[in-house]
Amino acid sequence: MKRIILPLSLASVLLLSACGDKLELEQNAYVVVIGIDLNEVDEHLIDVTFQIANPQVGSSAAGEAPNESPSDIVTFTTTDIFSAKELANSVITRELSFDHLKTIIVGEEFAKNELFHHTIASALMEPQMRLENTLIVSKEKAREFIQKNKPELETRPHKYYFYMEQRWKDTGLVPHSDLNRYFQRTSGELFLANYATTKKEEQIKPNEDDYRAGEIPQKSGDPVQMMGAAVFKNGKMIGTLTGEETRMALLLRTKSLTHYTIQSLPDPINDDYRISIQLTNGNTKVKVDVKTDTPKVNVTVPVNVQVFSNNSLANYTTNLSNHQKLKQSIEAHLEQMAMKLVKKTQEEFRSEPFWWYLNARQQFWTIDEYNKYDWEEKYANANVDVKFKVTIESLGPQIKPEVINDK
Amino acid sequence: MSFFKNKQNKNEENESEANQQTNEEPLSDEVMLNLTKLQTIFSYPTNNALQIRNLFLPIYDKSIVVLSIEGTVDVNLIDTTILQPLLRKSDGSLPNIDFVSLLLTTILPTADAKLITTVNEVQQSLVNGSTVILVDNEACAVSIDTVKFENRSVSEPTTETTIIGPKAAFNESAAVNRSLLRKQIRNPNFFCDPVTIGQHSEQEVSVMYIKNIADNGIVEEVIKRLKAIETDAILTLSQVEQYIEERPYSIFPTTLMTERPDRAASFILEGHVVLIMENSPTALIVPTTFWSFIHTVEDQYLRMPYGNFLRTIRLIALFIALLTPALYIAVTTFHTGMIPTDLMLAIAATRERIPFPVIAEIIIMEVAFEILREAGVRVPTTLGPTIGIVGALILGQAAVEANLISPILVVIVAITGLSSFTIPDVSFNISIRMLRFVFLFSAYLFGFFGIAIVGAFLLAYLVSMKSFGVSFFEPLSPHYPSSKDLLARPPIWKQWIRPMSMSPKQKARAPKPKGDGNNE
To answer: Which CATH number fits domain A244-401: 3.40.50.1220, 3.30.300.210, 3.30.70.20, 1.20.1250.20?
Structure first.
């Protein structure tokens, strides 16, 4: 008898445990984007917008439902994300799942509020919230941003953010920002988040990467522009950087995040034109001297340059003095840009997004000593010297640009 | 445990009964009396198997009776090697000795004649295909080996096919099988120990090994287990296998059947013992480790990179066959975050219209596939293509279109089924297919956690399993020096050492290759 009872009771334990809260794949509603805004009426409440992917649109032909939209966008006003998740089932038929949440969009107004950090930090207690989620700051309300974002090429909302993220890694026009990085840099250091908007205030500038989101001259297409960075300090947004500044901030880090960037610089021979180069980052070397009261920071950035276009048609290939001039001009231009950015961070933000604190921290025996030194405060007055070492790798496959001879 | 006890008690009862039947009764010197006894034993003439020829030999002035059993003897051989010499007058003078000795030494030109003295021996000789000569006034008989059973010729292997390598397979004749092995191993130390098993219908099992390689302990253990078999009749080696293996209830095999003489020979050269038996078109190899179930002969015949590539593919396929349905169910019910969003949405979109939970869906398909496979084996060859068409329809298009299953599941089941065909050994193949369901249910109940738990239990069970004193994962774990022909194989000239897990008497096959940083 015992022999029967034991396996039976074991089997019942197996059968009755663990699967109580199980849901089949299709019984969940998958939130792919969350937008968070400050409520206009009550300052302690937030508006949470869920963008829920509709599996039946744009996937396999077998499950196609042609008359449905690819995603459902709903906004709820609650105290935190999870009460919104519960509340959502008053509208949405399926249980909300954050398993495939990829992107969190925060309105600029909310990002500048203290509530931002509290909301995000408390949301992470839920296991479904992942630290890999991308953080984007939108100039307008996140709800408006999500509703206006209708990319032509992507039916699925998550696909849009996925591809954008892939490109960010290469271009460096926006920083690579996710919650993980945000939580690493909440004490003093600057955290750069993606800056995006659907509101346009077009400006025309000669330098193609010197824009913030919304300023890029663009005709037709998806209204969303992602450019530049929102700067966070101590869990609050304190300012923005343009695309150019963002690139430079990434380039000055010991371990640069961008693979290669294409940008244009003024032509040293002919002021009317600009030349386009591709920058590949070598290993940036940062030396921090903390022995004195005003720390000295020496940064050497070796960069490899490939010249892509040369509108002035000047001869840089066979004329060695031109070549030298080009090299010096690129170095000078980059150094000037870098120093401008450093100055901005010292004066405006009074902290640095370059991770130089890591180099500074190495020089102390204990964390207490480092804290006592107060790097953040010292940085604001530090003597920073940035040197670029340019190696021109190539000037294009053609030796000389084709010049039309005057007759 | 009471199972085993009952079985043993029963055997003991049978034993006393069997002993009575096999009592040794000497032959009488009255030839007709002996003949009558034998006729009674073989129920002559109701059973006309016994063929009796009464002869009077005028040359020797003797009456003799020549006995044989129909269907077991070569009639031509009897005529040319027994009857003709008996009836022909010898040229020279005959030595002055008694007639029986004369028969054995002078008259019969065969080497396989021997003197027997009991009724039981006569009976055994007859059923084994010998011809027996009863001589008047002699209390003994002469048995001459004239055995000839009907036999298939040596053909190509059917289950262990290879592209290159020898194409001969064992057939149902033990003599042919032994000959095929001796053709491979030409060594005076290649031993063949006959062990007789079965009480009513005695069968001989040949225990074959190389004396100066195989470990005595293993050989003795095999012979001991063979001798311990207590049953009236054993027809094939597959039954012998079930008697001598360590864990009859286990789903893992601990012995290996092969139909390839070259494979059996390579095992013999590593110190394994091979059993050959009449009526079995396979050889039984003991002891066996895990590695022999994932190896094929072709791994060694092909060049080293090719062999390793195929072996890697097979290993991957082994895990696919074992785990894919479980992984699918774990991922879709517990760990949805792991699937790429697009794939997840595609699965969810197709699953929305399917009325069953994932587990039901997957069981429907897996069971359908198993049915199809079993049907494929049993179906008459002429109906073979029908099965293919029906199977493709059931498992593919129609089931999806009828909203019974989602399309991705067809992929899962197809790849699982296909992978399971790469496992070379039949027994191991079935055990993997059974285990797949265990993993499936554990994954359904606990997700990856369940798979990990079952995997841990499985591994613990496998490492504790032994085959004739050799652990299942030897020589990898516990570790012994070996040729490292385990997961991957080294080049053939580096396989100079025999696996020490088999405790072979000669450790090396060849001198250690020099140079190139060979460490072992």
So the answer is: 3.30.300.210
